[in-house]
Design brief:
By secondary structure, this protein is α/β, with parallel strands linked by helices. The protein folds into two domains: about 15-210, Thiamin diphosphate (ThDP)-binding fold, Pyr/PP domains (Rossmann fold); about 275-400, Rossmann fold (3-Layer(aba) Sandwich), CATH 3.40.50. The chain has 15 helices and 15 strands. The chain has helices spanning about 5-10, 30-40, 55-70, 80-95, 105-110, 110-120, 145, 160-180, 205-210, 235-250, 250-265, 295-300, 320-325, 350-360, 380-395; strands spanning about 25-30, 45-50, 75-80, 100-105, 125-130, 155-160, 185-190, 195-200, 275, 285-290, 305-310, 315, 335-340, 365-370, 400. A six-stranded mixed sheet has the order 9-11-10-13-14-15, sandwiched between helices. Strand 6, helix 8 and strand 7 form a beta-alpha-beta unit. Helix 2 crosses helix 3 (about 55-70), helix 2 runs parallel beside helix 8 and helix 8 crosses helix 11. The longest helix is centred in the middle third of the chain and has 18 residues, at about 160-180. The N and C termini lie far apart (about 50 Å).
């Protein structure tokens, strides 16, 4: 049997959910990349421009299989580069089609110019980025590629598990089509993209009830009302476009929480912009994490009742209000240890920069220390988290490199 046929057979014969925990779901073991592809199908994506690049290739391969067998009703086009992928995505979105694609590392960097265009043309779409670094050449887990794009105008979410990646993509289409701002959903290379997990896959009708067909937009082709796109904008009008963009970007934090609440009501799983674990008036140290490292931290802090966890799910725009609310009960002598899996050529990592900005006007000044670890896919086992906790409590520097061999 061909690989596509085998996969489809396994999919159809998966154990259907006869459970009370998540009704109208089936449970299936799948990799993070296949969870992303499955989410795109469930969202009834109509156009997929694709170019393979490790470690996201299996996303577009799976989408190719589903479109070629008729399992997914979409147009799939192999492009000649990632720049062309995003240019085609831009054109399809202007045409009114629901768009999805995936990329990673150099592919995302190559598309940088078009990322700006998509965002500032106010085009809705969802893209999955499988995080990896650039130079020195490396294909393993890192968040430098996506965090380097944080000023392009895209909303960014980071998933901790395959389940969260699937559910976030579904929620992201609601968000992008409400605000006309593109969304990037990021998962870690290999630790998530190629690792199999149990995933609850919702039935199609459940997703259809949550995600209606996209509405007609002003920035969309209309044969009855011809218009031009991408023309020169004079100074007198340029700020108006950016002001409206700014207003809608300021709605992201609250609207994403509203969508998450509705998703929880229909699907039974709740995701906030952040997640606070064991942050109380007795907490002495809070580890600030993003993506798959969070799961390791969860296990380690069970043995440290004085240590809490602040998981960042919405990275851009940075969820300032949610973070302020999560930390409001911390004692004044508490410490924040920010765990970075990115290096952008600066003294501090991107997460530390955003945390300092978010807490600039906070009523309290917390001690914050930055920790680089896991760059380029280096493993971050429990012992590494223990070292971060120990150094934070006994011998911290402003910026720390953990498990680093000179």
């Amino acid at each position: 049997m061909e690989a596509a046929t085998i996969y489809t057979t396994l999919l159809k014969t998966s154990k259907l959910a006869t459970n009370t925990r998540f009704p109208r779901h089936r449970q299936q073991v799948m990799k993070g990349n296949h969870a992303a592809a499955e989410a795109a199908k469930l969202c009834r994506v109509g156009f997929v421009p694709a170019y393979p690049i490790t470690p996201q290739t299996s996303i577009v391969e799976r989408l190719s299989e589903m479109t070629s067998t008729g399992e997914m009703d979409a147009t799939y086009v192999n492009m000649d580069s990632e720049h062309s992928v995003f240019a085609a995505a831009m054109g399809a979105s202007i045409g009114g089609t629901r768009v999805f694609t995936a990329t990673a590392g150099q592919g995302l960097f190559y598309a940088h110019e078009v990322l700006h265009a998509i965002a500032h043309f106010r085009l809705p779409m969802v893209v999955c980025n499988v995080g990896r670094p650039s130079i020195p050449w490396n294909i393993w887990s890192d968040q430098s590629d996506s965090m380097a794009q944080r000023d392009t105008g895209w909303i960014q979410f980071y998933g901790e598990s395959s389940q969260e990646v699937m559910d976030t993509i579904i929620q992201s289409y609601r968000l992008t089509e409400e605000l006309n701002i593109p969304v990037m959903v990021v998962l870690d290379a290999f630790y998530q993209s190629h690792t199999s997990e149990n995933v609850w896959v919702p039935e199609q009708k459940l997703v259809d009830e949550f995600l209606p067909k996209p509405k007609r937009r002003n920035m969309q082709l209309d044969l009855e009302d011809p218009k031009a796109f991408g023309g020169m904008v004079p100074p007198a009008h340029y700020d108006k476009l950016n002001f409206n963009f700014w207003k809608d970007m300021n709605r992201v934090e609250s609207l994403s929480e509203t969508i998450a609440e509705e998703f929880a009501g229909q699907f039974g799983r709740r995701y906030g912009n952040i997640e606070a674990v064991n942050i109380t008036p007795k907490t002495k140290l809070v580890l600030v994490t993003i993506s798959s490292i969070t799961s390791t931290v969860r296990g380690v802090i069970r043995n440290h009742p004085e240590v809490g966890l602040l998981k960042i799910r919405l990275f851009k725009p940075f969820p300032q209000q949610a973070i302020l609310n999560a930390l409001r009960d911390l004692p004044e002598d508490a410490t924040l240890a920010v765990v970075e899996r990115n290096f952008l050529g600066d003294r501090e990592g991107a997460l530390m920069m955003e945390m300092k900005r978010a807490l600039y006007d906070a009523p309290r000044r917390y001690r914050m220390y930055d920790f680089y670890t896991g760059l380029g896919g280096k493993d971050v086992p429990p012992v590494t988290i223990e070292r971060i906790i120990h150094r934070s409590q006994h011998e911290p520097a402003a910026v720390n490199w953990i498990d680093f061999e000179k």
